[in-house]
Automatic annotation (TrEMBL):
This is Long-chain-fatty-acid--CoA ligase. The keyword Ligase applies. Residues 21-367 form the AMP-dependent synthetase/ligase domain. The gene is lcfB_5. InterPro entries: AMP-bd_C (IPR025110), AMP-bd_C_sf (IPR045851), AMP-binding_CS (IPR020845), AMP-dep_synth/lig_dom (IPR000873), ANL_N_sf (IPR042099), ATP-dep_AMP-bd_enzyme (IPR050237). It comes from Ascidiaceihabitans donghaensis.
Length: 504
């Protein structure tokens, strides 16, 4: 993929993530870069803090992994780019993991330094809080940064980020991505969610997640945009920020985030005067979420598809077509194929459901230190996604389900998303998640967990399903919850729901 011809000369020179930030800081030093409840930084101030921290770290971290364990914050942004300018390899570990998980991840990493807001055993920890950021800024009256000294030591083949796969079984696996791969990812994200000058981004997903990484760290700097960072996901707070912060791009993420925002008591009367782009990803979007969001805001959700191993894969775009309920068309120079579930070797016909495999210049090269998992995920030059989907004649990709989420009922395959889509057409149902429960005769049966926007009984919802679904697809039980459990990435936590079920 050649460089986007719509980019200015200062943007086209970036071949690494660090050089992309430096280009933005040189071009617009006075533009707002990031803002949180603690205050705002412009690009020049941020560059100065990055340079100070990079100078401090350089001797210890050159060529080595550096663990970054912070919540979404200006401190996270400063730390990430400082690691790059110091010549280190940022490893982004979710701040929300339990201490036992973090300890295991650190044990597998061999980090030179840990940048965090608390001490972690096993390596030198550099404490970095919002308050500690003040020590990195130049005194008043001194130029915030000497751009000539802000030297990017990285090359396109150097590691720009070590991310962790979002699998729900076992510990997450290290996924190292080069500068070249991340820059290719940025270009493809901008191809889909085309941005302009003076954008204000509101990311919600953790910056350690591939979606939050793109919405909070990388793509805002393409045109020197600003990032406003909520200190938590709380629907009323998000509505207030969309109204008051001049947000133009809402990095909402999975459908549970949009559903949460629409559940806010403030949402119905709110107007978002500058909001224009609403990306979606992380999980397939029910049609009901698309309809409700557009009816309320007059804005479309531009749903896309990606994973830690390669993102984005496809996006719905104004320029290339939108199909509600689909994940859009393949991003440039990216091949999507649907293959049989048994062997993964036979490419299926248009409209047939099978496993999605994909390849492109921004795909991973493997999992660090895990040859067995790499051999499963990387075959024939493709990443095998573990997702089930279809491609139509126009190239739109529709995600049917996760391969591992398929429910096997008396020899029939039940795809949870089909049942969830039906449940969400019920006027009282605001959220739905369908999981499998073991059954001595059928093998498995579906169980539906729902949240409500108005009163209805579980029996009424079960009756609704009986009226609209063939017998083997009907939920064996409907469970009403006050709210859905979410993973740190904002997806409905299917594992948490399933773990509480008992075989019947």
């Amino acid at each position: 993929m050649s460089k986007d011809k719509s980019l200015d000369a200062w943007q086209m020179q970036a071949v690494t993530v660090a050089s992309a930030f430096k280009a933005a800081a040189q071009h617009a030093p006075d533009a707002m870069y990031c803002k949180s409840a603690a205050g705002a930084l412009n690009y020049g101030q941020a560059a100065g803090a990055i340079q100070t921290l990079a100078d401090e770290l350089r001797e210890d971290v050159q060529g080595r992994a550096v663990a970054l364990i912070l919540p979404n914050s200006p401190a996270f942004l400063i730390a990430y780019f400082a690691i790059l300018f110091a010549g280190g390899k940022p490893a982004l570990i979710n701040h929300g993991h339990p201490d036992s998980t973090i300890a295991k991840l650190l044990g597998d990493l061999d980090a030179a330094v840990i940048l965090s807001d608390r001490v972690h055993p096993g390596a030198k920890t550099r404490i970095l809080t919002e308050g500690a950021l003040n020590d990195l800024f130049a005194p008043v009256g001194i130029a915030p940064v000497d751009m000539a000294r802000l030297i990017d030591p990285t090359e396109p083949d150097d590691i720009a980020a070590i991310l962790y796969s979002g699998g729900t079984t076992g510990l997450p696996k290290q996924v190292p991505h080069s500068n070249a791969a991340i820059v290719a990812t940025m270009e493809r994200g901008d191809w889909g969610w085309r941005t302009g000058a003076d954008e204000i981004w509101l990311p919600v997903a953790p910056f350690t997640h591939i979606y939050g990484f793109l919405m909070g760290l990388t793509n805002p700097i393409i045109r020197a945009g600003g990032v406003v960072i909520p200190d938590r996901f709380q629907p009323d707070l998000i509505v207030d920020m969309l109204v008051n912060e001049g947000v133009t791009i809402f990095g909402g993420g999975p459908p549970a985030i949009y559903q949460g925002v629409m559940s806010s008591a403030k949402f119905a009367d709110a107007t978002f005067p500058k909001l224009r782009i609403c990306p979606g990803g992380g999980a397939p979007f029910p049609l009901d979420v698309h309809r409700r969001w557009e009816a309320a805001t007059d804005l479309k959700i531009y749903e896309g598809y990606g994973m830690t191993e390669i993102a984005p894969i496809s996006i719905n775009t104004e320029a290339h077509g939108i199909l509600r309920g689909s994940a859009g068309k393949a991003v440039p120079d990216t091949v999507i194929e649907i293959v049989d579930l048994e062997t993964g070797d036979t490419v299926l016909e248009v409209g047939e459901a099978g496993e999605i495999r994909v390849k492109g210049p921004h795909m991973m090269t493997g999992y660090t230190g895990d040859m067995d998992e790499t051999a499963i995920a990387l075959r024939h030059g493709f990443v095998y996604t573990g997702d089930i989907g279809t491609l139509d004649a126009d190239g739109f990709l529709t995600i049917t389900d996760r391969k591992k989420n398929v429910i096997f009922v008396s020899g029939f395959n039940v795809f949870p998303r089909e049942v969830e889509e039906l449940l969400l057409t019920h006027p009282a149902v605001s959220g739905a998640c369908v999981v499998a429960r073991a059954h001595p005769r059928s093998g498995e049966v579906p169980v539906a967990f729902i949240t409500l926007r108005s009163h209805v009984s579980a029996d009424d919802v079960a009756s609704f399903c009986r009226d609209n679904l063939i017998a083997y697809k009907q939920p064996a039980e409907v469970v009403i919850l006050p709210e859905m459990p979410l993973t740190p990435a904002g997806k409905v936590d299917r594992s948490a729901l399933q773990s509480g079920l008992k075989a019947t």
